[in-house]
Amino acid sequence: MRPALTRLSASGAALAAGVAALLLGTLPAPDAQAFPATPKANVLSYLQSITGTGIVSGQHNKEPASAPAQYTQQVKNITGQYPGLWGGDLMFNASDVANRQSVINQAKTEWANGSLVNLTWHVCPPTQGSGCAFEGGVKSSITEAQFTQIITDGTALNTAWKKRLDEAVPYLQQLKDAGIPALFRPLHEMNETWNWWGHRPGTNGSARLYQITHDYLANTKGLSNLIWVWNVQDNPAGGWANYYPGSSYVDVVSLDAWYKNYPSAADYQQMLAIAGSKPIAIAELGKIPTAALLDSQPRWSYFMLWSEQLTGNNTNAEIQTGYFLPRVLNQGEITLPTGGGTGGGTGAITGLGGKCVDARAAGTANGTAVQLYTCAPGTAQAWTVGSDGTIRNPNSGRCLDIVSAGTANGTKVQLYDCNGTGAQQWQATSGRLKNPQSGRCLDVPGGSTADGTQLQIWDCNTNAWQQWTLPS
User: Fold this and answer.
1) Does a structural domain hold residue 254?
2) Long-range contacts, stretch 214-217, CB < 8 angstroms, 24+ apart
3) How far is the CA of 398 from the CAs of 221, 239, 277, 337, in angstroms?
4) Are residues 266 and 367 in the same domain?
């Protein structure tokens, strides 16, 4: 952690910048706090926990893949601090595609040093090869007929798109194997016209491609470590909700600020309306946030400066001031929650009155109610706590799931196909099972101990009917 003296009041930007600059020559970087293998639920829980009080600093690193920390190092040179969020890209031109391993290696290093990890992908269209130019490749147009093929299962272009996704799987799998959750922002700025995937509102538009991408990587390929970041640009045309793929497909709702330096009050409110209880973030911007912005829009959970814009659009004094604002959390200042999904344990989950979490009538179908019932041997009460934050019933192969990905008090829980969504993420903390997406805990309605009481989510509290003992 940085010395207490450097956590300055933001009462004067010039004073903050001056003191930061004065200290720059001697200020040590915070002690790196290596993160252990962690389920994605813990990162989401952390982002929710700082909502309203803190914001993680972030810096993107664009091509070339051979220098995946060049802009992060510029932050360190200017401020004496590393960002709390490292941003990288799976990239597009042939030489960088061939060097993706360097990007993944840097992601592992950043995680080990105590920074969160974000990956964007400027992906080439499935009408072209794996590598392409930006102009005419990533920045290009495809016809409506081609787009319809891409989102239609079984067509040649749909198959080509899934093969394009397959190219990223070995790299994303390395992060999963290392226990590293990655904020993953595919098909970004989908309300814009510059990219081939964008500017198609509605259920069969850009949002549908996002859903297909999510389902293929999370479900078919099992990449349960990906934290799905949905993204639009601050286009004044608005209507951003017309591109939203739905709550069950998104973990973090994010905005890129390029039409103006910072999100407006109206932009902020539009994002809050889409996100509900989910974390929101500024995924790209060119100006370092100010104290006034963060005080007036306190729910942003992280920001990420875009590569060359760091020094191209900000003075050193502005960067120093931004990194030393009281709200801003840099590398070494992020403490992820522990517990939840340590993995490996299979057995009964016991709760109120010594009774067990039970799949009603030993059901195995999607939608089977999960209830409280007298403990007894059998498959209906066997649960595996996964390292990915899921709780799975081995008999059915299905996961403990919140009905319709609901986030409201009283939403019931059930068995459902494991799908990597926030509705199936659980974090064990202080004896409770918390769902980070909703911020609520697994709960016995009214504290009833009657057999057959269907479990629900509810505001986390200290009542006995939210206390659970997991299998060891």
Assistant:
1) yes
2) 214/245, 214/249, 214/420, 215/419, 216/162, 216/165, 217/165, 217/168, 217/169, 217/172
3) 16, 36, 25, 26
4) no
Give residue 321's domain range.
4-329
In a domain, 163, yes or no: yes
What are the tens digits of pLDDT across the range 102-134?
A: 999 999 999 999 999 999 999 999 999 999 999
Q: What sign results for the dihedral spanned by CA atoms 367, 373, 376, 381?
A: positive
Is the pLDDT reported for residue 160 higher than 90?
A: yes
Measure the CA–CA gap between 297 and 58, rounded to whole angstroms. 17
Q: State how far the Cα of 234 lies from the Cα of 243, in Å rounded to an integer.
A: 13
- Within a domain: 339: no
Taking Cα atoms as reference points, which of 190, 242, 245, 250 lies closest to residue 218?
250
Q: Which amino acid is at 219?
A: N
Is residue 87 located within the same domain as residue 186? yes
Q: Which two tokens stand for residue 181?
A: 């959750």
CA distance linking residue 425 with residue 420, whole number of Å: 8
Q: In the β-sheet with 383-385, what is the strand arrangement from edge to edge?
A: 346-347, 383-385, 391-393, 398-402, 413-417
Note whether 347 and 382 are within 8 A (CB).
yes
For 215, the token pair is 């389902």
Give the residue-averaged pLDDT of 183-212. 98
Which residue type is seen at 160? Answer: A
pTM: 0.78
Query: Which CATH number characterizes residue 359's domain?
Result: 2.80.10.50
Residue type, 148: T
